[in-house]
Automatic annotation (TrEMBL):
<protein>
    <recommendedName>
        <fullName>Outer membrane protein transport protein, Ompp1/FadL/TodX family</fullName>
    </recommendedName>
</protein>
């Protein structure tokens, strides 16, 4: 019996292709797409991502206690070593959706859509595996305005706010099982991104100029994540996994430019750079700690729960219009497989479901100068449809999110449809001699 290395070469070609796609996707994302549409993302780093692929996302954002060898779980790098020693996994996801807003009887809606992530997972040895990919750390996208009146006069003016941007997480991770049933792992990430914000004042009467304030912020940083999992067999087909993750505090390198333009009839007639800063002392990310577990009846049922805590209070954000508070996120979810041994595809479909809730890390300014936070709750349902090889899946999920505001704040409801492909390919194929 001889080993055929064509599978290895094919996988390496896939790696080269994916790396190229990662950088191409970043360019597409920066120009044409948006992860979110929410006026609350004007503040801080916008809406924070989950660090999950579609499989974990479809279970409410589970990941800390998940240990599956059929998809990428970057939430806990200790899970990487669960992959089969002959398997290469490629995970890809994209989404589209719509958000509805309501305030003081007025309603509006915005569409959103983007390439969500790329990720891959492959074994190094029987007990060691590596993963790499690009995930969204956070995203900002908004467009709104208000009409006011000049104090002591009858002249009206319109304030327009427009912004977009995202912070990307390009990571490489390794996971290992040094002892029976005990796994550890680590991710090394390069965070990079750009945020642009615009404030414009337009007067209802003829005015010499209409001022436009532009702010452009570039961020980059090195970030590390550490994880562990303990796998406890209960019966021949049942098991319990307990996991924990930790991310240290991060100082980000920043470059901020603030410009004031004077615009007349849509043409910039005067431009002035009001401020420029560059350095490591202006923006930081918090310590994050998470714990979770999952209970599995093999090829039948999976249930799990996660709790993650991020110490945002006291973190730095230069001349922020908001305040930070500590964030807690809770995820509950599971997966059901009706009959994995049945004939046909549909009994083998993986039905996923989940709930999640969190308090915002932001406290935003409201009327009267009071800073208030909000909560986000959501429910998600998804399916994983196996392809002919029974190892690869087409994944679809539908998520409903509701932002619960304090009095006087904008209400938000959102629907998000995510599509994903989990592709499994063998590293080696064995040839038999006749």
């Amino acid at each position: 019996m001889y080993k055929d290395y064509k599978g290895l070469y094919a996988s390496l070609r896939w790696c080269a292709l994916i790396i190229g796609l990662l950088f191409a996707a970043d360019g597409i994302q920066a120009q044409n797409n948006n992860f979110t549409e929410s006026p609350y993302t004007r503040f801080g780093l916008g809406r924070l991502g989950e660090r999950t692929t579609i499989s974990g996302h479809s279970m409410g954002g589970l990941g800390v206690g998940l240990r599956q060898g059929t998809y990428v779980n970057a939430v806990n790098p200790a899970s990487y070593s669960a992959v089969d020693s002959m398997t290469f996994i490629f995970d890809f996801g994209a989404s589209t959706g719509i958000t509805w807003y309501a305030e003081n009887g007025k309603k509006d809606n915005r569409k959103m859509g983007n390439i969500e992530y790329f990720a891959m997972l492959f074994p190094i040895s029987k007990s060691i595996a590596m993963s790499a990919g690009v995930l969204p750390y956070s995203a900002s996208g908004y467009q709104f305005g208000s009409v006011d009146q000049v104090e002591g006069g009858s002249v009206q003016y319109t304030r327009k706010y427009l912004g977009t941007g995202n912070l990307n997480d390009l990571y490489v991770g390794i996971g290992a099982t040094p002892f029976k049933n005990f796994s550890i792992g680590a991710n090394a990430s390069f965070l990079f991104g750009r945020f642009t914000h615009s404030r414009q004042v337009i007067f209802s009467t003829e005015a010499p100029y209409n001022p436009v304030h532009l702010s452009t912020l570039y961020l980059k940083a090195a970030k590390f994540d550490f994880g562990m999992q303990y796998h406890l067999p209960l019966k021949s087909d049942r098991s319990l996994v307990i996991g924990a993750v930790y991310s240290p505090r991060v100082k980000m390198h920043s470059e901020l430019t603030q410009i004031k333009n004077q615009v007349q009839n849509g043409v910039v007639v005067e431009s002035e750079t009001q401020e420029y800063i560059k350095g490591m002392d202006y923006y930081t990310l918090p310590h994050t700690l998470g714990i979770g577990f999952s209970y599995e009846k093999k090829d039948k049922l999976l249930l799990g729960a996660d709790v993650q805590y991020s110490k945002w209070k006291g973190e730095k954000f230069y001349k922020s219009d908001c305040k930070f508070q500590d964030r807690i996120r809770v995820s509950l979810g599971g997966e059901i497989i009706p009959d994995i041994n049945a004939v046909g595809i549909w009994p083998k479909v993986r039905y996923r479901f989940g709930l999640h809730g969190e308090n915002s890390y932001l406290k935003v300014p409201t009327k009267g100068g009071v800073y208030q936070g909000y909560h986000i709750v959501g429910a998600v349902f998804g399916i994983g449809i196996p392809l002919n090889d029974r190892r690869s899946f087409v994944n679809v999920s539908l998520e409903y999110d509701r932002l619960i505001p304090k009095e006087g704040m904008i209400k938000e409801n959102a629907l998000k449809l995510t599509f994903g492909l989990t592709f499994n390919e063998s590293w080696f194929k064995k040839l038999k001699l006749n």
